[in-house]
Specification:
Elements: H1 3-7, E1 12-16, H2 21-36, E2 40-46, H3 47-52, E3 61-65, H4 78-102, E4 109-112, H5 119-125, E5 129-134, H6 138-148, E6 160-161, E7 169-170, H7 176-179, H8 185-193, E8 203-206, H9 214-223, E9 226-228, H10 235-238, H11 259-264, E10 271-275, H12 284-297, E11 300-304, H13 317-320, E12 325-328, H14 333-337, E13 342-347, H15 351-360, E14 364-366, H16 373-382, E15 387-389, H17 400-411, H18 417-434, H19 439-454
Parallel strand pairs: 1-2, 1-4, 2-3, 4-5, 5-8, 8-9, 10-11, 10-13, 11-12, 13-14, 14-15
Antiparallel strand pairs: 6-7
Helix pairs in contact: 12-17
The structure holds uridine-5'-diphosphate-xylopyranose (UDX).
InterPro entries: Glyco_transf_N, UDP_glucos_trans, UDP_glycos_trans_CS
EC number: 2.4.1.-
Organism: Sesamum indicum
């Protein structure tokens, strides 16, 4: 490298995620991708997140801001939490940008989670590029945007819901915060508020890829500067020849890595992986039906049951199934999904889990819980045809027989052939999207060119 090259200012992005696992992971992985492309990254974590998560290795620096709850927010409701975060966060983000400038590491761009829509205002006050990073699918963003703009009226009165670019939706396919906003008033405001100030953003990134959601992405791109940049799944999992930082870091939960050794001992596509992400709290009865369904299949299973959910497991289930099953409180999910032993993923269809399964070619059994998950489940089954959505009973519980039926559907026999074929197709398309010259890679390059053109 000659001196001129060395002295050139490396564009510097400050990345601000909302401090929950499902939002930290994709923004962190995106940061790593940018860092590999020569961008300097500073991640802004809340003080509490910084104190309570596994610490960082690799190329990304972490600095802290405050959400006003440095010792943890305990059971503070969402509304007062967001209000305080906005007030204290605006101030401390601004101070951090000043500090980085004064210490010779000026920031060029703030990439922010639109759950924190005030961040772009701070970025603009500092004369910086602002980029919103939407952690959910283009389809779900479009539903929220239509509600935000009053084009989709709530409460939903029709039996079928039409949103441009999407298949007709039944009420049960619509994100729970929209279909039942009275039960989640804070969350309803939160998802609509993502569009507050968005017109100030120079880029609107979506963790998806163009080939997955073409029509709806094109429609959204007519309104906002939308760029699909995903999947953020690290390249080494998409293409086993590649190596790069694979760990999630900033992990709120500690993974039980020994499950990988257990998987090593299983044959190809023989194991059912079960996980409901970082937030879902299943009904006791649902846990029991799931457990009994798994037992009835007599197949191997690896089940993530967070410590807070453990007491809902049926008594003596662990002991009775120890020949076949392994239960862990958290696992290295990407490594698990990328393992040849996994044949099926029973998932709540959180967007990260859905996209990770799509891009690693693992057929899904969808058991959505709340938020965007029912929409993701609808698309997995009817559009991407990469899995099946389990049918709940009248009490909204997916029974044991239904669990068995769905597992058989994707893992065995003729009817699962299409799902398994599509699993390969989506894995290939996801890999191509982020490979050099692919749709997501081109969008990232365009962003990098903009940063390079403005960097001093
Ligand atoms: C939340 C919402 O619930 C989800 O609907 C929304 O789309 C994103 O925010 P969460 O419920 O945690 O996320 O689910 P998901 O989006 O699937 O994210 C979970 C993340 O944790 C994934 O990246 C997954 O790989 C990781 N994970 C999960 C682990 O690393 N280990 C585990 O054992 C389980």
């Amino acid at each position: 490298m000659d001196n001129r090259e060395e002295n050139r200012h490396k564009p510097h992005c400050l990345v601000l995620p909302f401090p929950i696992q499902g939002h930290i992971n994709p923004m962190l992985q995106f940061s790593k991708r940018l860092s590999h492309k020569g961008i300097r990254i500073t991640l802004a974590a809340t003080k509490h997140l910084f104190k309570t998560t596994q610490q960082f290795s690799g190329s990304i620096s972490v600095e802290t801001i405050s959400d006003g709850f440095d010792e943890g927010k305990a059971d503070v409701d969402l509304d007062p939490y967001l209000a305080r975060f906005e007030q204290v966060g605006t101030e401390t983000l601004s101070e951090l940008l000043d500090k980085l400038r004064d210490s010779g590491r000026p920031v060029d761009c703030v990439i922010y989670d639109p759950f924190l829509p005030w961040a772009v205002v701070v970025a603009k006050k500092h004369g910086l590029v602002g980029a919103a990073f939407f952690t959910q699918s283009s389809s779900v963003n479009s539903i929220y945007y239509n509600v935000y703009k009053g084009q989709l009226k709530v409460p939903l009165l029709d039996k079928e819901i039409a949103v441009a670019g999407l298949p007709l939706l039944e009420i049960s396919d619509v994100p729970s915060f929209v279909r039942d906003q009275d039960s989640h008033p804070g969350s309803f405001e939160l998802v609509l508020n993502q569009f507050r100030n968005v017109e100030e953003a120079d880029f609107v990134f979506v963790n998806s890829f163009y080939e997955l959601e073409e029509e709806v992405t094109d429609l959204m791109a007519k309104i906002l500067p939308v760029k699909t940049i995903g999947p953020t799944t690290p390249s080494m999992y998409l293409d086993k020849r590649l190596t790069e930082d694979k760990d999630y870091d900033l992990s709120i939960f500690k993974p039980v890595n020994s499950c990988m050794k257990w998987l090593e001992e299983r044959t190809n596509k023989s194991v059912i992986y079960v996980s409901f992400g970082s937030m879902a709290k299943l009904e006791g009865e649902q846990m029991e039906e799931l457990a009994l369904g798994l037992k009835m299949t007599n197949k191997y299973f690896l089940w993530v049951v967070r410590s807070s959910e453990e007491s809902k497991l049926p008594k003596s289930f662990v002991q009775e199934t120890q020949e076949k099953g392994l239960i862990v409180s958290w696992c290295p999910q990407l490594e698990v999904l990328a393992h040849d032993a996994i044949g099926c993923f029973i998932t709540h269809c959180g967007w990260n889990s859905t996209l990770e399964a799509l891009s690693l070619g693992v057929p899904m059994v969808a058991v959505p819980w709340w938020s965007d998950q029912s929409t993701n489940a609808k698309l997995v089954m009817d559009v991407w045809k990469m899995g099946i959505r389990a049918r709940p009973d009248v009490k909204d519980i997916v029974g044991r027989e239904e669990i068995v039926r769905c597992i058989k559907h994707v893992m065995e026999g003729e009817e699962g052939n299409e799902v398994r074929k599509n699993a390969k197709k989506w894995r290939e398309l996801a890999r191509k999207a982020v490979d050099e010259g692919g749709s997501s890679d081109r969008n990232i390059q365009e962003f990098l060119s903009t940063l390079e053109s403005i960097a001093p």
